[in-house]
Amino acid sequence: MTENTHVVAICGSQADDSVTRVAAERTLDAARSAGATTDLLDLRQWDLPTFDPDRPDAGEASAVRRRVREADAVLLATPMYHGSYSSPLKTALDYCGFDEFADTTVGLLAVSGGGFPLPALEHLRTVCRALEAWTLPTQVAVPDSHSAVTDDGAFADDGVAERVDALGQELVAYANVATYPDCPSTPAPAAGD
């Protein structure tokens, strides 16, 4: 972590009672507990028309880009729709580019109404690779969203809550990491092993 680490979460859900938003907010809470300042870009509140390369500053695109560019680490949080991530998040990412994401630490979080939203996470990881971001190996999948959060806004499953908290802490711990940290080398097995 660098001093004054700033983490931005981009929430791609449009639902008022969004589990994705609950998870993004909890991730940011964990990042704040680890010493970061945070910012939630709730895409419901931004004017981002479908991306048109002839109008790269349409709506509030330049303000979104500026807030993402100011981040030391970014959380991409999305519901899974039809096996991928949400169109509002796709639109926000289309307005961004290397200036916002190259060498930026990114964490991934996806929520699904059914099973594990792994395809959405894989698709986001591919986009992050194309943008030359440094994507954390840890990612969070929240399945069964209809029963994932209690009436008081807490996660029903302690394991999910712990993974969400760990993601927030890792965003802070690995902020501004442009390359993977050195790993201890494993000695080669001896002949005959």
UniProtKB/TrEMBL annotation:
Its cofactor is [4Fe-4S] cluster. Transmembrane segments: none annotated. Residues 6-145 form the NADPH-dependent FMN reductase-like domain. It holds the Pfam family FMN_red. One of its GO terms (cellular component) is cytosol. One of its GO terms (molecular function) is FMN binding. Belongs to the SsuE family. Isf subfamily. This is NAD(P)H-dependent FMN reductase.
